[in-house]
Amino acid sequence: MGRVMVITSGKGGVGKSTVTAGLGAALGRRGKKVLLIDGDAGLRNLDILLGVAHELVFDIYDVLVGNCEPIKAIYQCPDEENLYLMPAPQSEENRVTPELMTKLIKGLSDYYDYVLVDCPGGMDSGFKAAIAAAQAALIVITPDAVCIRDADIIRTRLVKEGMKNVRLVINRFSLRALDNNRIPNLDYIIDATGVRLMGVVPEDEEIPRSSARGHIAGCKGYASLAFDRLAARLEGEKILIPKKIGEN
Ligand SMILES: Nc1ncnc2c1ncn2[C@@H]1O[C@H](COP(=O)(O)OP(=O)(O)O)[C@@H](O)[C@H]1O
Ligand SMILES: [Mg+2]
After folding, report:
1. pLDDT digits (tens, 9 = 90+) for 148-199
2. 3-state secondary structure of 202
3. pLDDT at 121
4. Which range of residues forms the domain containing residue 187?
5. Pairing relation of β-strands 75-76 and 83-86?
6. Around ion ligand 2, which residues have CB less than 5 A away?
7. What CATH code is carried by the domain that includes residue 91?
8. Does 170 fall in a domain?
9. Is residue 219 classed as helix, strand or coil in its secondary structure?
């Protein structure tokens, strides 16, 4: 059975989908078979990040209501042969319940090394469904005060829901962002969130550029190295956070 992880955050727009796609691609480059599930009903966007938006016919809701077999709602990323996506429904009304999500992922996880669930923003029913089947959670933050406080709130909620394995990813990191937000260093963020740091992804202009061209974010450029390191750590390799991260 594959590992099931949810990628979540307090604030929206911090890079959950980017990290889900970038980490998925990095695990794929290591030869792992990875399924991404877009949990953001009504605001799906992983299909764009993976370059399969034009192909979509069925989504997760179609599977759950019996419109199609699961395989019909799974799309292979053209840039990365080991990476697959089950898209979210276009309508917010077609939300998935935690019970159905758990049942679906249980059935699918036998066929993949990793199932990564991209969580919607907020902590309502979509959040509950996204975390329901996960054994581990990655909280994504950007280096600013609001995000740091939200990470503590979301960690508390995850622990309350029974999540034992919670880790932090700092996205859009740069020395300038630290400076602008009066954050002294990485240790300060780790202490303030109370979550163990799993990876730091730099601010990288290649990310929006790749997305705009319909290529998977985080396959090229400086951030892809950070996703490679994050994937390696998930696989149990001991890789330190580089000291010079964010300096260019
Ligand atoms: N490390 C990064 N460097 C530069 N831009 C980034 C980075 N991570 C995310 N972005 C940009 O930030 C925006 C929001 O990212 P997204 O992954 O959609 O956030 P979320 O899923 O949390 O709402 C996107 O335009 C994306 O291209
Ligand atoms: Mg998103």
Report:
1. 989 999 999 999 999 999 999 999 999 888 888 888 888 899 899 889 999 9
2. strand
3. 80
4. 3-234
5. antiparallel
6. 16-17
7. 3.40.50.300
8. yes
9. coil
